[in-house]
Each structure stands twice: as C-alpha cells, then as structure tokens.
Predict the 3D structure of the following.
Amino acid sequence: MKYCTQCLYPETKPDLWFDADGVCSACQAYNNRGVIDWDQRRKEFIEITNRYRCNDDSTYDAVVGVSGGKDSTYQIIKLLEFGLNPLAVTAETCSMTEIGRRNLDNIRALGVDHVEVHVKPQIRRRINKLALAEVGDISWPEHVLIFTVPVRTAVQYGAKLIVWGENSQNEYGGPAAAADNNTLTRAWLEEFGGLLGLRVSDLIESTGIAARDMIQYRYPSDSALAASGVSGIFLGHYFPWDGYANALIAQAHGFETYPHTIEGSLANYENLDNGFHGIHDYFKYIKYGFGRATDIANNHIRRGRLDRATARSLLEIHDGKFPWTYLGRPIEAALAEIDTSLEEFIQITDRFVNKSLFETDNQGKPRRDAKGNLIPKFELGRVD
Ligand SMILES: [Zn+2]
C-alpha cells in the first residue's frame, strides 16, 4: 500500500488521488490555500449571506445543522459574529452521549433558537443493525439525517440559506456560490451526502420498512426545493478550516472536551456526541487500512504541528485498534442498543476486513492478536 509523501493517507482512501510527486489530493488542496485570497472570500461570504438573509424578521437568516460538536459550535459562533440570526437544527445522533448533550445545550446558550428532530427509535435501531451488516456503517441513519433534516427544516421555516461546515471536496463554495445555477437539488444533495451505495429508497424496498417511517430520512422533492428557493454554502470555502482551531474557539465559548485521548483517535475534542463512533471508525480502518487517528494526524502534519515520522509513531499506538470501549463505555453496551452480541459483531467485522490489507489464516479468516487487533500486511507510511 502506497502513502502520500506529505501526509499519511494511503492510496486506499476513497476519492483520493496522487500527483506525479506522490502528494495526495487532500494535501494539494491544503497547499493551494496559500494562493486563496481569503479577504475576497470573506467579502463573497458577506455578499451571499446578505442576498439570502431574511429582511423582515419573519424567519431565520440561515439554517445550520448542529450535532453539538466543535465544528457546529464554531459555525454558530461565526454566523453570530456576522450579525446573522441562524436557526440551529439537530438531527439527533445515533447514540447521544451525555457530553454531547451538554455541548448541544451550550450551542443554544450561545444565543440561538434550536430545533431538534428525533426519529422513531425502533426503526432507527433496525436500520443501524441492517446498515452495519449490509454496508459496514452502523451510523448510516445519522449520515443520512444530518443532511436531510436541515434541508427539510429550512424548507419548512422558509429560511433561504443552509450553511454547512467543511467542504470535503474543498474547492467548491456550494450551490449558493454558483453564478449560473444556485438552486439546491436532490441530485446534488444525494451526491454530496455519501450514502455508501445504500439509498433510502432501496432500504424501503428491500426491508419492508414503511415509507411513512422514513419521512425525516428523505429530502424534499425538487419542486418543493425549487419553490422554497433554499440554497446552501460551505463555511470552509470562505474561511480557512482547521478542526483544531475550531475546537479552541468552541472551548473558549463553553464547549466541553473529553478528559482523555479518545479511543482510536489522537484528540479529545471531537466525535463526542455519538457513542457508536468507535465502531464506525473501526470499520473505516478494516476496509481501508486507516482510521480516525490518521485523519487527525494528517490535519496536524499539513499545518506543521506534527512531523510525519512522529505522527506515524502515534498512529502505531492508536489507529485501528479494536473498539473495546468508546468514551469509556464498553462495546457490549453499544451493541446492546442494536440487539447485537459481541460474537455477532466480530463475525460482521470479519466479512468487511480487507483481506489484501490484513493477515488471514488458512481458512481465509482474519487473524487477530491477543488484544483482538488485526495484523496489517502493509507498512504504515511506506512511500515507493
Ligand atoms: Zn497527503
């Protein structure tokens, strides 16, 4: 497995490509930030928000999806700084934690109205379990709802702008920034909110879950979207995005961090709001050979806060370990929420282990060490 020469992303990462010097597209996007005129971007942000804001106080200037994390706290702080009146909208995470709940309360305390959507828990748990087994993503309902709920809510309240956080594709401001066609469409939403090939319509057809139980999981129709005039932007396009800086800003405004490094991570300031996160991140590791600790290490490498060799040594300790606990809660307790035993869970993980990346026995079953960890066949950080 080949790695980026600058950071520690492997070639297995979806939607990543390398240039002739072996630098990954994520690093290239970061390197390009130096040539971006951020003053100009800031002006564009003001222009766009002025164009979409509510001029008669009949509704909100913008809708912001907030999980209660450092990034959503930062987003709200930023919009308030610009004098906007946002509506904070939460699609509750799959397994809300106590610290996540306190951080969500803190967002409201920043001085915003807040709407929170809860879906039928029985249906959600069925989908958690099914998506874990079918596509290896226990948090699939959350990944859908964090996109559909803010859009549905914006349409419902008549707010014209949705402000998302970081743009993973990096060089794109969002539909509202487009000169020619700034409408938000379902096609765009479905492409942007990656559903790992499992679509809501497939789920309704294949599982017998009724459409009436999936209302919050669906986007408004194109005609409803067009009639509403709602559009969207990424805040990360207008202000240089740095998760660590966002965490510092959020903390200065009451955001609470975890007292230890989070399991499978290198940080204590993110993914505090969903008790399933350890399982979710573990599946990324078994599929692609890198976990959450790699993402964080790379963010620090690009900003010169960690050198590549040091980061590599930290990943050896923290990345991709079996998620025995998350935020101190044993995995059995997380799995009990979806009526799954540890044995069943390990059987499911074995099906998703990328056998070209990890050692297997002569039956083709993934080998694990005494601590339950997979044994990589790849050399972490190798550059050829
Ligand atoms: Zn890179």
